[in-house]
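Lecture 7 notes: from sequence to structure.
We start with the chain below.
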Amino acid sequence: MDTIIAGIDPEHPDPEIINRAGDIIRSGGLVAFPTETVYGLGGDALSAASAAAIYSAKGRPSDNPLIVHISDLDSIKRIVRGMPDAAYRLAERFWPGPLTMILEKSDEVPSATTGGLDTVAVRFPSDPVAQAFIQAAGGYVAAPSANLSGKPSPTSSKYVIQDMDGRIDMILCGDDSRIGLESTIVDLTEERPVILRPGYVTLDMIREVLPDTVVDSALIRDDSDLRPKAPGMKYRHYAPQGELVVVKGAPDRVISYISEKTAEDSSSGHRTGVIAPDSDLARYMADVKLGTGDAGDSEACAHRLFDLLRRMDDESVDRIYAVGLAGGGLDDAIMNRLLKAAGHHIVNV
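Predicted structure tokens for the same chain:
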């Protein structure tokens, strides 16, 4: 397949390019597109065949539900069985933006899109290219992240091209993703709202709107035996090619432990990498040292994380050590991604 690679102005999307992308979706094709979280791989959310094509292009298990992206709030009425008050309240506060809500699905949404579930995950992204594209595509675009299954989610179009060139019809190349982590997912079909995937919209932020919200405990625990409630979160995600270990503890002890390990790895012929706050990088000995931003700057870390994992692959690093975060707020979302990328290989020092 010859993939169309189309650069697009993030603030003023070319209508001709957007309409061409929309026509591809309407005809059953696939288009990768930018959002404020990560790049998405889009297909027609109301077509079982399109869902199957997405799973095939990604190499993704078919029981891993796809998120339906909309471009206006009224569109949700077609794909859900009623909109609870809690959903309206969250939409008023966080949409458009990096929040996905799980609701009871209508018959319009094929089970292939929802991984066989009777619920549907819905998001209204804030990215202007995404909004224009979704509208041109008919208003309902199913889209997981635009990467091969298991690899770090792409926040830059170059990594979308790396994974998807020749596998899909078109790639819309905009700016790098502003946030860098996938959306927060909150399930509104239970007695209490439950966060199934932490993200930029934190538990505290959601509790300002819905005070009784809880978190699926399997998401942020170090114990890999706990199974998350969301089907998609049971699979390993975000993994670089090299072996990744998360090291958590007091800064001096973390630096000492990682330095000892990278020295051992180097003596054994391994190419080593460290992911740590900018201010500490000089204290490490490794072949590749990449900074997450200032210590305590969770937004910078979130923005850079997937790109750092991809860069480790670019540098052919086979042993990677990442400094763990203290937890709470956005740190929980970052640690969730790190733990999954590391296969829950964490060392507390």
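Points to note: The first helix runs from residue 15 to 26. DSSP finds nine helices and 16 strands in the chain.
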